[in-house]
C-alpha cells in the first residue's frame, strides 16, 4: 500500500548471516512498534517468493529494503538495531526537513557530524537538491533553512545555496568547481578525517576517492603511532582545498583487515593509500617524517610517479583465490583443529589411498606380466633344450623306438627266409 512504509528483510532459511540477524531484526520490529513509527517491519523468505525477490532486485542474503510508495531503498549500513532504526526513520520521513529557527538549527547541528542545508526559496537548484535527496537519503539527512537561521559566522556569496557543515566549519557548493550536485554531496557526506574500518572503506568506494590511512595500534601510545596519526590529521585539515576532491583521510586500528585486503603483511605503524575502485595501493618509498613528506607522497600519487601495487588484473585475481583458500584453511585449523583434520585430512586420505591403489595396481600388473613372460620364456627354453634328464629320456626313447623297429625288421626277414 502506498500509504504505508515497510522495512523488509529478504532472507533464505539456510543463510547463516540471516540467522545471526534474526534476533536483531526482532528487536527492531518491537522498538519501532513501541515508538509508534509508521514503518511496518516484516521479513520474507526469498526462496519461497523468488519472483517478488527478483522484482525488488534481491541478489544476496540478508537484504534489507525500505519500501516507500513506489520506491525501494537498500540498507547498506551496519547490521545493528540502532543503525537500522535510524535508517528506517530517516528514509520514512520527509526528504527535506525544514529548520525554522536558530535554536532548531543548533539542536540539529549538535546531532549530526555532517549536515547538508539548502538555503533560499524555490529555484532550479532546490529542485535538483530534492532530486539528489531522493537518491542519497539512504546515507544522510537533508535540511532546508532561510539565511537568517544560519549562524552569524556563515557568509554566502549568493542565494540560493547548498551548504555542508562539518569539521567545525562549512563549505558551499560551487557548480563550476564541484561539478554535479549529487557527486559533490556524495563526496562531502564524510568527515574530512575518519576512524576507518572495513565497512567505511566499502562506503568510501562510492566516492571515487583515494583513501590515505595511518595504520596504527590505538592502544599503543608510543611517539611513532601518535605522530603518523597527527600527520594525516594535519594534512586533512590544512590541505583540504588541495586534496579533498581526490583524497579521504583517516586511521585504522590494527593491520589484520588491511593485510587481508592487500594480501601483504604491513608492519605497523605505517601509511598506506588505497584506491578502492581498482584495488590498487601505494606505500611510501621512504619514511614519512612530517607533513611535508606526506604532501610530497600524495603529489607523487596524483602525478603518477608513485608506484602502484596490487590491482584487479588476472594475476592478482589468481593470487586472491590462493590467498583466500590459504586463509580459510588456516582459520579453520585455528578455530577447530579436529574439524580441520576431518574436512581436509579425510579427502586427502581418500585421494592418497586411490593414488596408492592405482600405483600398486600398475606395479603388480607389471610384475605379473614379467612373471608370465619369464614363465613363457622358461617354457620355451625347456621345450627347446629340456633338462639333462629329459634329454637323456628323449635319447632312450629314440633308442627304444629304433630297437623295436630293428626287431620288427628282423622278424620280417626271418619270416621271408622261412
Looking at this protein, list some descriptive labels:
single chain; 418 residues; alpha/beta; Glutaredoxin; 3 domains; six-stranded mixed beta sheet; 17% strand; globular; Protein disulfide-isomerase TMX3; PDI_TMX3; EC 5.3.4.1; redox-active center; Thioredoxin_domain
Task: Write the SSE topology.
Layout: E1 5-11, H1 16-34, E2 39-45, H2 50-55, E3 63-68, E4 71-74, H3 81-92, E5 97-98, H4 102-111, E6 115-119, H5 124-136, E7 142-145, E8 161-166, E9 169-172, H6 175-178, H7 181-188, E10 193-195, H8 198-204, E11 210-216, H9 223-238, H10 240-243, E12 247-253, H11 256-262, E13 270-275, E14 280-282, H12 291-303, E15 309-310, H13 314-335, H14 337-384, H15 388-417
Parallel strand pairs: 1-2, 5-7, 6-7, 10-12, 11-12
Antiparallel strand pairs: 1-3, 3-4, 6-8, 8-9, 11-13, 13-14, 14-15
Helix pairs in contact: 1-3, 5-7, 13-14
Derived from helix and strand composition plus strand pairing, the structural class reads alpha/beta
The CATH homologous superfamily of the largest domain is named Glutaredoxin
Order of helices and strands: EHEHEEHEHEHEEEHHEHEHHEHEEHEHHH
Helicity range of the residues?
40-55%
CATH class of the largest domain: Alpha Beta
Order of strands, widest sheet: 10-12-11-13-14-15
Uncertain residue segments: 379-410
Distinct helical segment count: 15
Number of strands: 15
Major beta sheet summary: 6 strands, mixed
Portion of residues in beta strands equals: 15-25%
CATH fold name of the largest domain: Glutaredoxin
Mean pLDDT: 81
Report the span from N to C terminus.
141 Å
| Total separate domains | 3
- Our Rg estimate from Cα atoms comes to 41 Å
CATH structural architecture of the largest domain? 3-Layer(aba) Sandwich
Shape type: globular
Domain Thioredoxin: 1-93
Biased composition (Basic and acidic residues): 367-383, 405-418
Keywords: Disulfide bond, Endoplasmic reticulum, Glycoprotein, Isomerase, Membrane, Redox-active center, Signal, Transmembrane, Transmembrane helix
Organism: Mesembrinibis cayennensis
Amino acid at each position: 500500500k502506498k500509504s504505508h512504509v515497510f522495512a523488509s528483510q529478504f532472507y533464505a532459511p539456510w543463510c547463516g548471516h540471516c540467522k545471526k540477524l534474526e534476533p536483531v531484526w526482532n528487536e527492531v520490529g518491537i522498538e519501532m512498534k513501541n515508538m509508534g513509527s509508521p514503518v511496518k517491519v516484516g521479513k520474507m523468505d526469498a526462496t519461497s517468493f523468488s519472483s517478488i525477490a527478483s522484482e525488488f532486485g534481491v541478489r544476496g542474503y540478508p537484504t534489507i529494503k525500505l519500501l516507500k510508495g513506489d520506491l525501494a531503498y537498500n540498507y547498506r549500513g551496519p547490521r545493528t538495531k540502532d543503525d537500522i532504526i535510524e535508517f528506517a526513520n530517516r528514509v520514512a520521513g520527509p526528504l527535506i526537513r525544514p529548520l525554522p529557527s536558530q535554536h532548531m538549527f543548533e539542536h540539529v547541528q549538535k546531532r549530526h557530524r555532517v549536515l547538508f542545508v539548502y538555503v533560499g526559496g524555490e529555484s532550479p537548484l532546490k529542485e535538483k537538491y530534492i532530486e539528489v535527496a531522493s537518491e542519497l537519503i539512504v546515507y544522510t539527512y537533508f535540511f532546508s533553512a532561510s539565511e537568517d537561521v544560519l549562524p552569524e559566522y556563515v557568509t554566502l556569496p549568493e542565494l540560493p545555496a547548498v551548504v555542508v557543515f562539518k569539521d567545525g566549519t562549512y563549505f558551499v557548493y560551487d557548480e563550476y568547481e564541484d561539478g554535479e550536485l549529487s557527486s559533490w554531496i556524495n563526496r562531502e557526506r564524510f568527515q574530512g578525517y575518519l576512524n576507518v574500518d572495513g565497512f567505511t572503506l566499502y562506503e568510501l568506494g562510492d566516492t571515487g576517492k583515494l583513501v590515505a590511512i595511518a595504520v596504527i595500534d590505538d592502544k599503543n601510545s608510543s611517539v611513532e603511532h601518535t605522530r603518523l596519526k597527527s600527520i594525516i590529521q594535519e594534512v586533512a585539515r590544512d590541505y583540504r582545498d588541495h586534496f579533498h576532491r581526490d583524497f579521504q583521510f583517516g586511521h585504522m586500528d590494527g593491520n589484520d583487515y588491511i593485510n587481508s585486503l592487500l594480501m601483504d603483511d604491513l608492519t605497523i605503524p605505517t601509511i598506506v593509500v588505497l584506491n578502492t575502485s581498482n584495488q590498487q595501493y601505494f606505500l611510501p618509498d621512504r619514511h614519512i617524517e612530517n607533513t611535508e613528506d606526506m604532501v610530497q607522497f600524495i603529489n607523487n600519487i596524483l602525478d603518477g610517479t608513485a608506484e602502484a601495487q596490487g590491482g584487479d588484473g588476472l594475476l592478482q585475481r589468481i593470487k586472491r583465490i590462493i590467498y583466500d583458500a590459504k586463509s580459510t584453511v588456516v582459520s579453520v585449523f585455528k578455530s577447530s583443529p579436529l574439524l580441520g583434520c576431518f574436512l581436509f585430512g579425510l579427502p586427502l586420505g581418500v585421494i592418497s589411498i586411490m593414488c596408492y591403489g592405482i600405483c600398486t595396481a600398475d606395479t603388480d600388473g607389471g610384475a605379473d606380466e614379467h612373471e608370465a613372460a619369464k614363465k613363457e620364456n622358461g617354457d620355451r627354453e625347456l621345450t627347446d633344450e629340456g633338462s639333462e634328464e629329459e634329454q637323456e629320456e628323449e635319447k632312450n626313447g629314440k633308442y627304444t623306438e629304433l630297437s623295436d623297429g630293428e626287431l620288427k625288421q628282423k622278424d620280417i626277414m626271418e619270416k621271408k627266409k622261412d
